[in-house]
Design brief:
about 290 residues, mainly beta, 14-stranded antiparallel beta sheet, 14 strands, globular, disordered N terminus
Length: about 290
């Protein structure tokens, strides 16, 4: 799946949901994939000189839903500051009817420079360590309807979700359906539980269809899972309160195959861009329902 941990996707007008039943009839492929992270580009003022790390994404199927376990590690190297290490572990489940979604994510950031007390001049610079956990469940009242999201961590919080909101897998299904139909611009509201915040607008710009040989070469790894048509999709994620004229919080470009597999990804954080190259992929078994 598209993870936005990234979290690679997700994100509504009721009219757009009409495409979802057709998309759900298609075959999504359970898989385990390993991505290698590297620095694609950086602005001169960012301070970032190199990056590395990996993403292990396991996307599975149960009789009643889709599961995802994503482990993420990124190291950022700075020219004149301590290196930064970011870890994330996500576990989620989404009902096949798109109406329920459970999420549990732990994030750790270490190596940032922080002010710490000392016996000398009242403070010194040193590494800090921050740990965050986000856990909860969201439910919709029906297709195209709103619902509620209940967080249990970092503290008990309840949000009212707007009509037309999509959860991550449902959003992926809609993107595939609209790409097959030849659409080039898709805007939806996504709730993925990555922050204690309401659904946010996500705009997708879909490129021309890529024939299977070209798509296979683009991701590098070899597998029958990759011998499929694909599209290059540019996604912009907007904060919930930004409105139509606001700037996106974050952008990413992905290669999306018609079976839900994600090939190479580019994560644009503004001052620098991280590339995730697909190194290995294997099919996971389907349930015997």
């Amino acid at each position: 799946m598209i993870a936005a941990c990234l979290r690679l996707l997700g994100c509504a007008a009721l009219a757009g949901l009409l495409a979802a039943p057709a998309a759900r009839a298609g075959e999504l492929a359970p898989y385990r994939a390993l991505y290698h992270l590297s620095l694609a580009s950086a602005k001169s003022g960012s301070g970032v000189v190199a990056a590395g790390g990996a993403v292990l994404d396991e996307w599975g199927e149960t009789c009643d839903g889709w599961t995802e376990q994503e482990r993420f590690l990124m190291r950022l190297q700075y020219g004149e500051q301590p290196d930064e290490k970011i870890r994330s572990n996500l576990v989620s489940w989404e009902a096949k009817n798109g109406l329920r979604y459970r999420f549990d994510e732990r994030r750790e950031n270490s190596g940032e420079e922080a002010r710490q007390p000392s016996d000398g001049d009242g403070g010194q610079h040193g590494p800090s360590n921050t740990l965050e956990e986000i856990r909860g469940e969201a439910k919709l009242d029906g297709p195209g309807k709103g619902g509620t999201a209940e967080f249990t961590r970092p503290e008990a919080t309840t949000l009212t979700l707007p009509s037309g909101v999509l959860f991550p897998t449902e959003h992926t299904l809609v993107l595939i359906a609209r790409a097959k139909a030849g659409d080039r611009l898709v805007t939806r509201q996504l709730f993925d539980g990555s922050d204690v915040a309401n659904a946010a607008q996500t705009t997708a710009f879909i490129g021309p269809k890529i024939a299977p040989p070209a798509g296979k070469a683009a991701v590098g790894a070899k597998s029958p899972l990759l011998d499929r048509p694909s599209w290059r999709v540019r996604l912009a994620f907007f904060p919930p309160s930004s409105g139509a004229d606001g700037l996106p919080d974050y952008e990413e470009t992905i290669q999306l195959l018609d079976n839900g597999v994600v090939g190479e990804m580019l994560f644009d954080y503004g001052d620098y861009v991280i590339r995730a190259k697909l190194d290995d992929i294997e099919a996971l078994p389907r349930p015997n329902c």
